[in-house]
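sry for the spam today, last one i promise. struct tokens for design, 301 residues
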């Protein structure tokens, strides 16, 4: 492979990784897609390509669609609610993170995308997140531009009622989450309940490995009771850390040296509306390893 082809792939790698992760909700599977794309790139004849960028995006998208079709079958038998693997990111994303916005990689958004069929998910992401033109979408999906327009239109209609309507300044969200973390760590029940919307909901993923809720837990009082119970049970062993998860402020909860959960939030700037709590140890393992922490079921006191 000549150096220019190598450089082309390196330049496109973040975009390919971004597409694959948004398609699959798994960093490990996204990396596998990028690696498979790389192997095909190495074996291809580059001189005849009209656009190397379009070729790479097409291959990564098609590989992601194939993997997602298999994953959909597995997720149909998943124990409890399926949530994506959360990603720990920098507090100050660089401008070079091309065509990406925080809400386009948030846990809430990725969970919402689960409603779409694999091809619809790919078309929607390429057009609405990565700003591809319909010619590129058509090439990636092997369909006509007219068909792709219809697919994207239907996908937008399917998602529009559920997309977050609140544009909250990051500073306001940070203040709210810090207040929530402090109240949870100190076991102040009234403060916890006051920071939650009355109809707030908590959506958890334990993967059948650790306890979680099969359906959303609804109501500020019930959610506050859950956090208060954790404080009562583990006391000073519980620690919360404010971090950036999937481009937005979130919380990591540690019990002793164990990363027990990664918590993502939707807010209106004044109250917490939704909590997505990832407790599945398999989906926390990569993050825990990067932080030098344990993961797995927490031992009872």
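last one done:
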């Amino acid at each position: 492979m000549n150096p220019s082809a190598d450089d082309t792939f390196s330049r496109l790698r973040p975009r390919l990784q971004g597409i694959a992760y948004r398609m699959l909700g798994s960093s490990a599977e996204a990396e596998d897609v990028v690696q498979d794309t790389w192997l095909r790139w190495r074996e291809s004849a580059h001189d005849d390509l009209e656009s190397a960028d379009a070729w790479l995006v097409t291959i990564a998208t098609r590989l992601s669609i194939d993997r997602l079709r298999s994953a959909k079958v597995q997720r149909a038998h998943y124990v409890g609610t399926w949530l994506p693997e959360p990603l720990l990111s920098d507090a100050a994303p660089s401008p070079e993170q091309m065509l990406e916005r925080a809400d386009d990689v948030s846990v809430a958004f990725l969970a919402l995308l689960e409603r779409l069929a694999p091809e619809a998910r790919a078309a929607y992401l390429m057009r609405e997140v990565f700003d591809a033109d319909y010619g590129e979408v058509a090439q990636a999906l092997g369909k006509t531009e007219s068909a792709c327009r219809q697919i994207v239109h239907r996908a937008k209609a399917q998602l529009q009622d559920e997309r977050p309507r609140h544009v909250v300044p990051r500073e306001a969200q940070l203040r709210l989450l810090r207040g929530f973390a402090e109240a949870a760590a100190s076991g102040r029940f009234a403060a916890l309940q006051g920071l939650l919307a009355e109809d707030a909901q908590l959506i958890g993923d334990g993967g059948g490995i650790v306890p979680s809720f099969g359906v959303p837990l609804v109501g500020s009082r019930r959610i506050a009771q859950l956090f208060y119970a954790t404080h009562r049970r583990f006391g000073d062993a519980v620690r919360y850390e404010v971090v950036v998860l999937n481009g937005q402020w979130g919380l990591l909860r540690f019990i002793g040296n164990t990363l027990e959960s990664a918590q993502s939030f939707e807010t209106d700037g004044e109250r917490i509306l939704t909590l997505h709590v990832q407790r599945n140890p398999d989906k926390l393992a990569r993050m825990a390893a990067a932080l030098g922490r344990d993961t797995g079921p927490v031992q009872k006191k």
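The chain is about 50% helix and 15% strand. ok im logging off now
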